[in-house]
Amino acid sequence: MDDQPWVRTAPARAARELIVCGVFDTIVRTYARREVSGAEQLDGPAIFVANHCSHVDTPVLLRALPGPWRRRTAVAAAADYFYTRRSVGAAVSLAFCTVPLVRKGRGGEAGGGGGTAALGPLLADGWSLAVFAEGTRSRDGRVGRLHTGGAVLAAAHGLPIVPVHIDGTRAAMPIGRSWMVRPESGGRFARHDIRVRFGAPIEVSPEDDRFEVMERVRLFMAECGAETTPDPKLAARRAAATGAAERAAGRAAGGSATR
């Protein structure tokens, strides 16, 4: 199933406000208390790069966005998961303004690796994009390796990356559950605590190393208290750069000594 441009029309946006702020917000509030911080830092369209633990992450993130951003933010969604059935794909597209992305295998690159032709015009038209950069939901709560597609998109379209850390959704709706659950203790009306924290925008240029950009996102999530996964490719690139610099310095020193 391809991208559905109709979900970004004015009638669809109005319907989505009712779905996200009415239906889903009511459900989430029944099972959880939500705390949002950092949204005051937003300034214009952006690539929102968030961690991913639960299916409830998407409505929670969209509800946490101020209205002007929420109404013009699309969400990157795995084509192989949400778009295999036309009816499901259409429903998800309407509810969350999703854009299908083809992953490079299960949990593969999200937000640029598979890509979609719809992203260029969408971002050029002033829309923001939310990307779950791990490519799939975390099974253990740890933030997995962050793929670099968000950085590639940000550089290509002159947009900042806004890192977003979502905490508490894994307990509220674990993988394998089709509905939110109550805390195991605390009574029949107990609620989970869900926290959404927006980081300061990270400016990205085409000259920036995409792995270094995503490292800044990882460090933000670590500052939020998350257990994160450093990218081994970044470590290898840094080691190679250090080795090259040391060899160059050695050659320069040897050349000076022979003069």
UniProtKB/TrEMBL annotation:
The keyword Ribosomal protein does not apply. GO terms for molecular function: acyltransferase activity. Residues 230-259 are annotated as: Disordered. Residues 46-169 form the Phospholipid/glycerol acyltransferase domain. It holds the Pfam family Acyltransferase. It comes from the Bacteria. Keywords: Acyltransferase, Transferase. InterPro entries: Plipid/glycerol_acylTrfase. Residues 237-259 have a biased composition (Low complexity). The keyword ATP-binding does not apply. SUPFAM superfamilies: Glycerol-3-phosphate (1)-acyltransferase. This is Lysophospholipid acyltransferase family protein. It comes from Conexibacter stalactiti.
